[in-house]
Design brief:
Layout lengths: L3 H18 L9 E3 L5 E3 H17 L4 E4 L3 E3 L5 E9 L1 H5 L6 E8 L2 E9 L4 E6 L5 E2 L2 E2 L13 E3 L7 H13 L5 E3 L4 H7 L5 E4 L4 H4 L2 H7 L3 E3 L14 E4 L5 H7 L4
Helix pairs in contact: 1-2, 4-8, 5-7
Length: about 260
């Protein structure tokens, strides 16, 4: 389980990342394309380095899984999972809807999560067994009686394979056409927790993309799972659903042709 001390550390990690990111936003910085064709910037690296330094100083026995600097203490039962800028394309484009993701895994399952948007200074925090907060105030997901009235989000339809896109389009056809939003990365999951978005559907995610999200969505009353309806963990396949009203899970899976 994650303790209050763990949560306090996670907040300080987010503060440190934000201090590294804000001076570079809409400024001059270096960027490059990685082997997987995603981009990394000076801000990504500076933010992760700042977070790792704190963990190494205060939780030397814990592991670290970082997007930019790899894994430390791989066999540790407690692992901090860091994505310094989730939504690097938005950062590059000057759009303040990216976020820093911080998760704590216990034996492979996420027990704590932070989504921090450092420009707008918006922060969602979730810890297993406790209410999710947005800037310190508890938040709740929204009730959704039927999918036809749902707000659906995904970062990009181009992120799906052809087969995955067919499943997503089945879900898209079940909701109102003008209630589908594209872009947003981790920010969309915070909006689920706060009751503004009903469903997020994605695939091709890595552990650092989704580990922080589950405690946040679930601590607000929602559900996060893979496309089989199973809880997310370190061995998950990279598909993800965030559903504000858990009663809609079967409807979502049926619409995707996976029920």
């Amino acid at each position: 389980m994650a303790t209050r001390s763990d949560l306090d550390l996670a907040h300080r990690l987010a503060d440190a990342a934000g201090e590294a990111i804000r001076p570079l936003f809409r400024g001059d910085w270096d960027q490059e394309q990685k082997a997987d064709r995603t981009f990394v910037t000076e801000a990504d690296r500076a933010a992760e380095a700042a977070m790792r330094a704190l963990i190494e100083a205060e939780r030397s026995d814990d592991g670290i899984i970082g997007e930019e600097y790899g894994t430390r203490n791989e066999s540790a039962g407690r692992q901090w999972v860091l994505d310094p800028i989730d939504g690097t394309t938005s950062f590059i484009a000057g759009r303040p809807i990216f976020g820093t993701l911080i998760a704590l895994l216990q034996d492979g399952f996420p027990v704590l999560g932070i989504i921090d948007q450092p420009i707008g200074r918006e922060r969602w925090a979730g810890r297993m067994g406790h209410e999710t907060t947005f800037n310190g105030i508890p938040v709740r997901t929204a009730a959704c009686r039927e999918l036809s009235g749902a707000v659906l989000g995904t970062t990009s339809p181009h992120a799906f394979t052809e087969g995955e896109a067919d499943h997503f389009m089945g879900l898209a056809k079940a909701v109102a056409e003008r209630k589908i939003i594209y872009g947003g990365d981790c920010y969309n999951y915070g909006l689920v927790a706060s009751g503004h978005v009903d469903v997020v559907c994605e695939a091709g995610l890595k552990l650092h993309d989704f580990a922080a999200l589950a405690p946040i969505v679930e601590g607000a009353g929602g559900l996060m799972c893979d496309w089989s309806g199973e809880p997310l963990h370190a061995g998950s396949d990279g598909t993800a659903l965030a559903i504000g009203d858990p009663a809609r899970l079967e409807d979502v899976l049926d619409a995707m042709g996976l029920g």
